[in-house]
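Structural prep section.
Before we set up the soaks we want a predicted structure of the protein with adenine in place, mainly to decide which crystallisation condition to try first. Input record follows.
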Amino acid sequence: MQELKQIVKPLLTWFEKEKRDLPWRHTSDSYKIWISEIMLQQTRVEAVKVYYERFLKELPTLQDLTNTSEDKLLKLWEGLGYYSRARNLKKCAEQLIQNNQTELPRDYELLKKLPGIGSYAAGSIGSIAYNLKTPAIDGNVLRVMTRIFEDDRDIMREKVRKEYFEEISKIMPDNTRDFTESLMELGALICVPNGEPLCKKCPISFLCQAFIHGTTNKYPNKKKEAKRKIEIKTIIILEYNEKIAIQKRPSTGLLASMYEFYNCENKLSEKQLIEYLKKDRVELKDITALGDTKHIFSHIEWHMTGYLVHCKKINENRFLWVTPEKLENTYSLPTAFHFYAKQIKR
Ligand code: ADE
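Run finished without errors. Recording the tokens verbatim:
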């Protein structure tokens, strides 16, 4: 791939002029760059900005991260999704501190051994924070590369990713940070994932085979993912004495250790709900239907119906009873439940 080297100069020149002003571009602290890269892995830049600033205000150092409780951490992550990312951050910080390390290792292979750090994050942290010639191969970069070469191999294959890692590391200039960021930026602003790429503005279109042959829409080739599994649920918001019942989810699996409203499988009618609650020894005052909604996770969809249930008396002590204010400020309630949580205050 002799000619790939030709992208370096035009890309860096373009990046210098066009780069977005993003909060994590103002630091060279590897802790902060790590946090930003983990957040950015599965979340849009615009959404990450607010979370990034708040997270670092609360937990400015590796030591602060190890000292924080899982509940507090999940609350800081609430709404970002893929919560194992947050738990892995803490695990990783604990592991480093236990081994008397004050920062992330300055080595690609060692980075990859840490919880939650895969090839992408190791490459981005390495090249952005530590000036290592370790490319960050993500969807943006693979889109740019497969268009340059009209490469129709499935980009989900590890072999393809590894090969681009090798080829890009060979052409990495000394300014590894700007180069990594410029490739990501091109993928985000010009060589876009949805809709037509803005090839007229692209600084490297002169060597892009897909641009030259008018085939950009064929790349990248990504195998269709399996259909999501659909789960049908009834969300039951129990209210008693102006407090709401919540419970903690199991410590493994989907939305592990986060809080949720009481709920059950299947879509219950009001009549069925009344029957269902009898087993919970709930004495009802009234029931309000809150409507239906859907939440889409990566591999699962929840199709929900919800009810607000005012209780006259409740003979159950397995719930945690919290005020709506405390629920909002203290407990990590996954976005899936926000459609119903919003209706409590009214
Ligand atoms: N996506 C992943 N990492 C990024 C970064 N550092 N800047 C902008 N977008 C990104």
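Observations: The chain has a mean pLDDT of 95.
Flagged for discussion at group meeting.
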